[in-house]
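## Example record

The block below lists the input lines for one assembly entry, exactly as stored, with component labels intact.
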Amino acid sequence: MGQDSGWSKRTLLLVIVFISCVTIFPWLGPPVYFISFAFNVFIYITLATSWNIIGGYTGYLSFGHVAFFGIGAYAAAIFGMWFGLSPALNILASIPAGLVSMLLAILVGYPCLRLRGPYFAVITLCFAFVTELTIRNLDFLGGADGLWLKGLALPIEVSRSIFFELMLVLTLVTLFVANRIEKSKFGSGLRAIKEDEEVAQTMAINTPKLKITAFAISAFFPGVAGGLYACYLTYIHPDIVFDVNVSILIVLMALFGGGAFWFGPLVGATILTFVNEGLSTFVKAEYARIIYGCLFIIVIIFMPNGILEFAKTRMVKKPAKFEAAVK
Amino acid sequence: MLRIDSITAKYQDLSAISEVSLDVEDGKITALIGSNGAGKTTILNSVSGLKELSSGRIYWNDRIISGSSPDQIAALGVIQVPEGRKLFPAMTVEENLELGAYLPGPRRDWTKTRKRVFELFPRLEERRKQYTGSLSGGEQQMVAVGRALMALPKLLMLDEPSLGLAPIVTDEIFKIIVELNREGLTALVVSQEVLQTLSISNAAYLLENGKIVLHGAAGAMLADPKVKESYLGI
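Predicted structure tokens for the full assembly:
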């Protein structure tokens, strides 16, 4: 807040070089598997970073955030069907699909954001279940069969590379927005809500409005990501796009990295997607889950504020921080 | 001017305050005294919109504010310094102060206001980068008052500003309230420190079991036999 930690020219240059390298990566002819894997990493970064706006900054743990991803996927598929969009236009329909997610977030958030703590977590989880069940039982949305979309009539490497670039753009935009929010007055208002909502109100902060705005923004990007994912997969099914495991994974990723910073979810999502992939490739699936679970327990016990905060306190000496010293 | 007109507020079925009427005149310090559990904080919370009323009305400059949300009331310049400070402990002194100036108006010249706050509380300037959770009780109270001042209050409501503080720190806080009042600030001070509070106030109200039992000029209250006997122990 206040002091905008403007990046030095060197960091900025490094970031630009890094992004450029990532951008040209799929065109260097790597195996398609790597492109798809990177695509997944981008999705998780987008989801975790968006979640963090309401979960990490504001302290409202949404456990149903996958719903916004799923709604976006379905909205894009439906737009494609209804308007007979070409595959390329269908990709563009991901943006209005994000708006559909956003609209639903406002409708759901209005009553739900009055609840705090575990109540909010449970009600958002229920919201995800209800959405999934509704779609599963509505025939015009494909029901239990799912929906097919038209794919790009291009070789798979090219098509995957295009989706890689699109998801990369979305990820960068999401990170940029999360960064701007963190440094803004809006962001400090959200932090105030996280720390003490009642006091925030007495300081003229319109907390209901701030919460709804944060929730809507945090639903928009997953919606767009869902739309892109639907076009990428060309087939969507409630089991795939409303997977409750994803909901939980997003929360863990953000908290693993550290929910107070915009780059926490970036770090958390990247590390965990790699760990997950490594484990499922080299270790038996059953062991992989056990290891994964243990990893979380260790992080939560020893690094409750995320690995970034942990690393930071180890590297620089900072004044002690007492979370609950004030009564 | 703040006018509280016969308000009643309940917790479940129990009335915390019943038919309380109270005026806070512009430019004056008004004291609200009474023992623990008399309902003093409930009155302040009713004014700031945190506590819903069962009946009665609250007016700020002849405009009804009861029923408005806390942020709307705060936006009118009615600012509360809550009991027990209620800072944002994981934020620095500076961040707490900056959040006080959240609205566009106060935010426009918040650096100027902050300079003034640092003049009033030089200790806060030294500790500006420190997390408020790591400050002493007195320093935390200073942040709480400073944060409220950042909102450019027209009425400052202080809830037990001396709670749990060393006498020397209490003196300092009260001295600053007087200084701010001299500059034109209207204040409503809630306190159990009857003697000290009355000695800085213009008018006072005595609350017992949720009802105003006595009110008048602060000097007259100090001389009142009932106040003397029950609260001053003379």
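Residues 195 and 322 of chain A are 13 Å apart (CA to CA). Chain A touches chain B through 29 residues (CB under 8 Å).
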